[in-house]
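Give me structure tokens for this 216-residue protein.
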Amino acid sequence: MTVTKAPEDAYTAEPFVPARGGLAALRRAAAGCRGCPLHREATRTVFGEGAADARVMLVGEQPGDQEDRQGRPFVGPAGKLLHRALEEAGLDPGEAYVTNAVKHFKFTRDEPRKRRIHKAPTLREMTACGPWLAAELAAVEPELIVVLGATAGKALLGSSFRVTEARGTVLEREIHGRPQRLVPTVHPSAVLRAEDREGAYRGLVADLEVAVRALG
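Here you go.
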């Protein structure tokens, strides 16, 4: 008897990524992605959005509860804080492209029917979703990537990445076969969790100002 493995058991989104077409085609295809088991519990795929010719791409970790419900990235509390920080740093959020390293919400519950609690994706899950991020980078061709937090940094720069060591600096690396400039910073959700929230927010804005200067 031959046992047929489910697509998600392969842990790669590659078979679901269209060979041609722009962001609209990618978004349509991503809605049906079964490249890893995370799609089973999530409400929907949350693909990136923003200007197709954006000079800057912001990459976070994964959708949160509100993003999963609405199907849009960065629409929850962390997204609202990021929007404010971008404006304060001098970067128009409407001119950026925002996405996540992982496109499905990973969560746990303390009890049935209770609030869904964010759970960090594994390296295997981030790697499985990598073809989507590679396709977004190829479609947008940003001049600069703002890396939001440790998980996004590991997805783009490898498992040795430490946001505390690299934040607020301009890095030059080859990402998915393309030379890229990147500015790492903390994820806005880390600001919301910080004891000194104002200090953490000022640090985020300062890092984003480095990104603005790098864009020239």
